[in-house]
From TrEMBL:
Protein source organism: Penicillium canariense
UniProt lineage: Eukaryota, Fungi, Dikarya, Ascomycota, Pezizomycotina
Protein name: AB hydrolase-1 domain-containing protein
InterPro entries in UniProt: AB_hydrolase_1, AB_hydrolase_fold
GO term, biological process aspect, one: antibiotic biosynthetic process
Domain of life: Eukaryota
Span of domain AB hydrolase-1: 42-127
Pfam families: Abhydrolase_1
UniProt signal peptide: none
SUPFAM superfamilies named among the record's database cross-references: alpha/beta-Hydrolases (SSF53474)
Gene3D superfamilies from the UniProt entry: alpha/beta hydrolase
Amino acid sequence: MASVSVLQDPSLQARHKQSIPLSDGRVLGFAEFGSLYDDATPVLAFHGWPGCRLESAVFHPSACELNVRIIGIDRPGLGLSSPRPNRKLLEWPADVRELVRHLKLERYYILGVSAGGPHALACAHEPAENELLGVGVVSGPGPWTLGTQGATLDLRVILNIVAYAPCLTRYFMNSQIVKPAQDPDPTKLEELMKSQTRNKPPADLEFIERHPDKMAIMVAGVREGFKQGADPNMQDGQLLTSDWGFDPGEITLKNIRLWYGTKDVNVPVAPGRYIAERIPHAVLREYEGDTHITIHGHASEMLKDLITGGAK
């Protein structure tokens, strides 16, 4: 239950509600989890969709164990970050570099989870020289041109609606998610999200039952992520169905780590294999039998893998 306490601990609230002004006048929100020691290894964490910086709390216990400082960042329009309409994936690295300068980080790693994966690879494509030591992707989607084969029917429908009928996406989010997410009573969203987990694979249900902290973090992340309404979340989803603006094969950063579950029906392992083929020096680890949810049981191993890969 350590991750629940880190979100609820009054003495740590200031770490979870930080922001900086960006050079163009926008604000970038972020939260810190894990080690408080000055010599902790910085890892910038990019959340999934929908979500926000608070999602990175799932790595808190592992980060404390490994002396890692997790810095979860809100993408534009989510949580504490200002909107950036019509943004492109390759505009994200510039925002990240401004935060890196503000925090005075000389060396750091990046970890992208699910929808955060393409954002992490965008940073690997345009790294600040000698600063970025490695990029890890946990269950990240590939380019939209790969399609959605292997994903659940529900998810395939949702992504195609996001891609080709954004007005329906906005309507769905406003009618189904925004109201409970913005309700003063947090149990409204919790009840909705729990009802959606009932059709999950048995392995997911068992994992959630054994790790109630993970469910609490998911709820907190979605709740905070919808503070500014549906539009920023719709735009964040549209990036998953848009051209990345680069080919993963152009990435020259040496320390690229990819982790995928073979039973993941949200982001099947196929995109990971594609990215690994496009980046010859990337290292792909397939977790046999793991899903989009249960793969988080390997958090310590993945963090350690990323950091030791950058130390070589």
